[in-house]
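Researcher: I'm preparing a figure for a lab meeting and need a structural model of a single chain. I don't have an experimental structure, so a prediction will have to do for now. The sequence is pasted below. Please return the structure as tokens so I can convert it later.
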Amino acid sequence: MVSLGCPKNLVDSEVMLGLAAQAGYAITDTAGDADVIVVNTCGFIEAAKQESIETILEMAALKAAQPGRRLIVAGCLVERYRDELRTELPEVDAFIGTNELEQLPRLLRSPGTTIAPHPVALRPRGGIPARERTRPDADYLYSETTPRIRTTPRHYAYVKIAEGCDHPCAFCSIPQMRGNLRSRRVGSILAEVERLAAEGVREIILIGQDTTSYGEDLGLKHGLATLLRALAQVQGITWIRFLYAYPTRISDALLDVLASEPKLCRYIDMPLQHAATRMLHAMRRPGSREFMEKLIARIRERVPGVALRTTFIVGYPGETQADFDVLLDFCASQSFDWVGAFVYSDEEGTPAFDLPDKVPARTAEARRAKLMRLQARISKQRLKRFKRQVVDVLFEGPSEDSDLIWQGRLATQAPGIDGRVLITDAPADMPSPQPGDLVQVEITATHTYDLVGRIVANRTPPSA
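Model: Understood. Here is the structure written out token by token.
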């Protein structure tokens, strides 16, 4: 299994692995040893699509080297370009969309089988206008009973709480690929998290296209807040965080549960996309710069010590230098903990695709680089406050950079996207910590994105 793209896609890959194993197939992490290769693709932006195609062609070459080997392509790229892929990639034996994961065992048993999406009527809810709802077959949701083989480290796991999205962002193709919002039941999620805790998972990361809309389709008024409070009672879990938040869905109820439950990470990943009001309207995003500034102030007031991560799109059609200057000024004034910046990707089938005044690629890339240089200075300055402090760190084991040091994360650092704590020393008489242990680290140095420190104590009981 080659899994590309976001954590939501990774969960789909883990489900497919679980389904294959349940059907009696052995899993190998070496493509050259496999009789069947599955590539789970991403089709969100141009760079991701290109990576997906290159990976498919690489795996197709491996298939050609061994007669009888099969190649299956799954995921978002299939949802967007199923017919084109069938025509252009005859070496692929089968294609699986994001709502057809459970068909994998049937394909493994019957190589010549093809899959046709089954039509299911969309529910008439708010968000995406009916004329733009393009996925009438999207209804799949995995549950606590769905087999799954996790590929993340043992101490943390992603849990998908909902699928699809009802927001009408002009640049986004997710509704075409994933359909409208569909939330899992609280009991299903709770049962899955309890099982993960029993397996040794210490950090739960809730994911969805917009986790803050969780439960709206089920009639829940404060769905995510209710879910988080229930999950915080699960024994054995140390940290819980959620990705990703939509600005107009940040309720006081959600902020209050973040502030009051010790297991909930005081961390909000809230993609804002831009700060210039004109750009927000063009993107079909809510609010204005003033709205966002008031929202951020409210978050920080109600959840002391919260870390804020956001992402921005630069080079959106019609973005002027003045619009970009507004974004720079906004970032400087708000001093976010973590920022990601992306150059606009012109995606067919989205409303933005037909907009005039495209920004030249060189200009857009220069703006992205300038924004990230600004954020690097902000991050370096913000991390200095940790110098000489003793902080709780989730221990993760050897560093990705060197076996000579360890690494871990603060509650305000999500795996794979934020900085790390690099651990250089520990008391000689202390048993070596294990991944998932909560250790106390004295910070001895700070860098642009990472912290450096030494362990002074292990907070995790030996029996845990």
